[in-house]
Structure formats: C-alpha cells, structure tokens
Write a structure and sequence with these properties.
With 319 residues, this protein is α/β, with parallel strands linked by helices. The chain contains 11 helices and 11 strands. Keywords: ATP-binding, Cytoplasm, Nucleotide-binding.
C-alpha cells in the first residue's frame, strides 16, 4: 500500500474540498480506488502507486480552484478528473474563469469547462460565432449571458432571440391564443435564460420598451438589425435558405451567435440542415468563429454525458 500526504494551509480549504458529506472526495476515491483521509492540516491518500499519484494531482488541482474562489461541485470535480486522466492538468489553471454576468439572484455566471471558456472568448472577439455541440453544454445559456453583459455595458441597444418553430417529432396541431401565445412554447428555453439573468419584472420592462425581442425566425425577413446582439437557437432546424436569410440581417455594430446540435435535427426527412451548410460554407471567413463542444463540456446531470456517449457509440456501430 502506497501513501502520499498533502498539506493544507487553512481549514476552510479542506471543508470546501471535501464538500457536504465528503461528496467531492468520494468521487475521487471511487475513480481511483484509493482512500482519502483528512486529519487537521493534512490529507493522506493511500492505494496503488499510480492511482495515488493521479488522485493527489486531482486534489491539488481542486485546491487551486478553491484558492481562486471557485465553488466545487460534482461537475467540476468530474471535469478535473477527466483532464488529469487525459494528461491535460496544466489546462486546469485556466479553468477559474472570469465572471461573465450576474443573474437576477446575484449568482455569478462563469464558464465551467475549457470549451465554454473558448466559446465566450470567441463571442467577444468575433462578429459571428457558431457554437455546435450536444445538449447541456451551455450554448444558449452562455450566449444569453454574453448578450445581457453587452446590453448592460451599452455596447448594444437590443437583444434579439430567435429560433425556428419546428416541432421535435410531434405534431402539435392548431395552438390556441394570439400569435405570441402560439409561438411562446417554441421560445420557452430563451425566456428561461432571460428570466434567470434579468428577473421577470426587468425582462417585462425591457420587452415593452423594445430592448428585448423574442420571435420566430420567420419574422426576421426584410429587416436590418443594427446595434443588436442576435442569437439564433436550435439552428440545426433551419433550412439553408432560412440560414442565409438570417445571416444577411446583420447590421452595423451588431453581434450574432448561432447555436445548435447537428445530432438533433427535427427537419422532415430529406431536408438539408442550414447549420451543416453554414459550417462548411463559412469556415474560412475572418471574423466568423466556429466552436465545437464535446461531451466533456456537458454541465447538466452526469447521466446526460453518459447518454450522449451511448448515442455516439450506437451511431458509430450503425455506420
């Protein structure tokens, strides 16, 4: 049995590291089949030599995040473990990202993975950013956070959120209500993100003033969008014609973010996805960035990562 010790400067570090009911350390113990015991200002890790080495590196990485004021959760513990297993521990230093936005409840919104950090940097640096990846990678949420930040800093006058009104494998028939009530169900994820950032009252105030607009993609035709932060969500469900129409709405002093997941296309069989086309057509144009997320960037429940991996494996075996 091999043993290694880690010294801790302050007791608060150990409390943050172990988590409530030692849940963070249990993940490390389970991953590497080691025993981790905290005694005063010292942590003792014992087990097989190679596993102990990796576990110690994970614990030291987590301590460095704690020292920079990051709150540890199951997600970032698992992410640190995956980076150590891939031999990319030097990248953990860059993980403690800057706060993008403060929500209406005072909670800071920060990138939680390297993919998310790169995505936010590309949005800052480019006029058009295309974010493509699986569900739960924060594509829409971070784009809305960046839009709210730009709006609060008065870099833009309007936030415009849009998505194609395509049913996800179900026919919803004729919906009751006026036009806004008919399209609301399609736009609900965008509303949720805006409510989180601004609060319901502030959101309503900006909506009435025309500073925020949430509309189906079909309503974009014929417009020029100046001084705006425009987000196209679920872009995999656009046709090539709709995508071209959307991109040519870009006005002066505006930014566009296009998000989508090419594995979840709800278009009728035989119809090409505008997102797939645009990634190929615009890949070498300056000031247009493409960011691809992987399953490691998933920040929802850990089972979402496992589900995505299982579907990818199934798709490969079918091919």
């Amino acid at each position: 049995m091999f043993e290694q010790r880690i010294n801790i400067d302050r007791m608060e570090q150990a409390v943050a590291l172990f988590g409530s009911f030692d849940e963070n350390i249990r993940l490390v113990e389970k991953e590497y089949q080691v025993s981790v015991v905290g005694r005063g200002a010292e942590i003792k890790v014992s087990g097989e030599p190679e596993n102990v080495g990796k576990a110690v590196r994970v614990i030291e990485s987590l301590l460095s995040l704690v020292n920079r004021g990051e709150a540890l959760s199951e997600q970032n513990v698992r992410y640190c473990i995956s980076l150590i297993n891939d031999g990319s521990e030097e990248k953990i230093e860059t993980l403690a990202g800057d706060c993008i936005c403060i929500t209406s409840k005072g909670k800071p919104v920060k990138p939680k993975t390297l993919g998310q950090k790169n995505y936010c940097n590309q949005i800052r640096q480019n006029t058009i950013t295309i974010g493509v990846g699986p569900a739960g990678t924060g594509k829409t949420y971070l784009a809305v956070a960046m839009a709210v930040t730009a709006f609060r800093a008065q870099e833009v006058n309007r936030i415009i959120l849009t998505r194609p009104a395509v049913e996800a494998g179900e026919k919803l028939g004729f919906l009751p209500g006026d036009l806004q009530q008919k399209v609301d169900p399609y736009l609900r994820p965008l509303y949720d993100a805006l409510f989180d950032m601004l609060g319901a009252e502030t959101y309503q105030k900006y909506l009435e003033r025309g500073n925020i607009e949430v509309a189906p993609l079909a309503y974009m035709r014929g417009r020029t969008l100046d001084d705006s932060f425009i987000i196209l969500d679920e872009a995999q469900n656009t046709s090539p014609e709709q995508m071209k129409m959307f991109l040519t709405r870009l006005g002066f002093n505006s930014k566009m973010v296009i998000t989508g997941d090419v594995t979840q296309i709800d278009l009728p069989d035989g119809k090409r996805s505008g997102l797939k086309d645009v990634m190929r057509i615009l890949r070498n144009i300056d000031d247009i960035a493409q960011v691809r997320f992987s399953d490691k960037d998933v920040v929802r429940h850990r089972l979402v990562q496992d589900i995505i991996k299982a579907y990818e494996k199934n798709e490969e075996s079918r091919r």
